[in-house]
Design brief:
- It is a single chain.
- The protein is rod-shaped, with a radius of gyration of 31 Å.
- By secondary structure, it is mostly helical.
- The longest helix has 69 residues.
- The chain has a domain of 38 residues.
- The chain is 97% helix and 0% strand.
């Protein structure tokens, strides 16, 4: 009878440990995915900002050249 109780307790503890490990792994994976998505979004925003700055600079240069040519 004691052996059965010990086996049940040990199996229960193993199940609890496995569930905790699985939950921790899932949380770590979700956190890593969120960090990766955040980094990708930041990179995309930086690229868009650089592109906008380049377009603005090009427009200013073209306008200056046109104004200089007309004047």
């Amino acid at each position: 009878m004691v052996v059965v109780v010990v086996v049940v307790v040990v199996v229960g503890l193993v199940v609890v440990v496995v569930v905790v490990v699985v939950v921790v792994v899932v949380v770590v994976v979700v956190v890593v995915m969120v960090v990766v998505v955040a980094v990708v979004v930041v990179v995309i925003v930086k690229v868009v900002v650089v592109m906008v700055v380049v377009v603005v600079v090009l427009v200013v240069v073209v306008v200056e050249v046109v104004v200089a040519a007309v004047a």
